[in-house]
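User: Before I run my own analysis I want an independent prediction to cross-check against. Here's the chain; please return only the structure tokens and, at the end, one sentence I can use as a sanity check.
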Amino acid sequence: MSIVTVQLGQCGNQIGREVFNAICSDVHGMHGLCSKKENESYHDACKERFFSEEEAEVPVARAVLIDMEPKVISQTLSIAARSGCWRYDDRSHFSQKQGSGNNWANGYSVHGPRHREVIMNLVQTEAEKCDRLGGFFTIMSMAGGTGSGLGAFVTQCLRDAFPTSFILNHVIWPYGTGEVIVQNYNSVLTLSHLYQSSDALLVHENDVIHKICAQLMNIKQISFRDVNQVIAHQLGSVFQPTYTAGSGSHYSRNPLGDLMETLVPHPEFKMLGLRNIPQMPENSLAYSTFSWPGLIKHLRQMLIANAKMEEGIDWQVRPPRLDSSTPPSHSTNKPLHFNTSIANLVILRGKDTHSVDLGSFQDPSLYTSWLNPQDAFNAWKTPRAFNKYEKSASLVSNSQFLLKPLDSVVGKAWNMFASKAYIHQYTKFGIEEEDFLDSFTALEQVISSYTSL
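Assistant: Structure tokens:
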């Protein structure tokens, strides 16, 4: 099944371009120990997901590009075309001459309704190119105006127009130190609206990716492109073809559906986090060796200690000891910093994946009491290496990983709202105080639900 990517705002368009670059680089890169037949199967599965191929042309990304300012879209189209490996359809983009001014209400209440018809026509056209539509993957920021406000509006339109299709929103969590003064308002409004219309939200935190660039990739002067390339690498490690438990000897044909079935067992819990190891500068790969037991040990500890990267893992955190009469969520000796999970998916790429022992991820103490660990944990594998890494492992987790950042954003936004700061900038575009209160209520319920795990 094919995935239509919807790139929204400056952030969404720049990350989207890097995602397609990473996918193409992987397809044409090292193959590990795979046979020619398996490589061809991998290539075909990837193409079906992400590209349509016109005769005698390079692959064309299944994507719609949307921004209220033309500059970034123009750059994105040009850079993709110059790659020579893939390109965007010249007709699958929409822009205007004026942005949303970092105002969520402007994107949601003004630009969205005004341009709904032309945007949804572009989406419909892209969807009709798919032999089988598997769903939509939207990429957007939470801090600005177009990506967050227009992104929330477009996601709502996608749900109305394609009620049976899967929608996965990829959202970029803003830097804690602040990008724009109203970013917490924008974030609260975005998350609360996406929670209603999306099937799941896959979150990357800017602060975390920045640390990965500095500490793992050894980048001295970190640019937005450096950050976006790390994000794209992690996304590619999840969305490139794999064998799932139900796909047998063929690569999975329904990536979004498989992801939702594996990780989102309840509509109250939609927050997904992503960790990928190893990550290091390309020039270090030739001098590095990795063992599966070592990678799995690190990945599991990253999960339970809520470490976002390999460096700085707290190895003192241990799962709670459970007796037969104490369900996991009610354990009296649960460690303070232990990260309880609802569901986890481990994706292994590279040689000898068939022999990897993943039993440590099936420990009942890792999970909430209302799911059987056998249902809460899944593994996808492929012997094909990913982007020059001989062995690599990714973890997509539905857990308490975002509780602290979410509570912080809601708290900061509430403090501003209580003093009526900047509210007039939203009410002039039709977002009333009641809309803010509804958003606060919705996210406080999300925080409460995840806390109760």
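Sanity check: The chain has three domains: 2-273, 282-319+337-400, 404-452.
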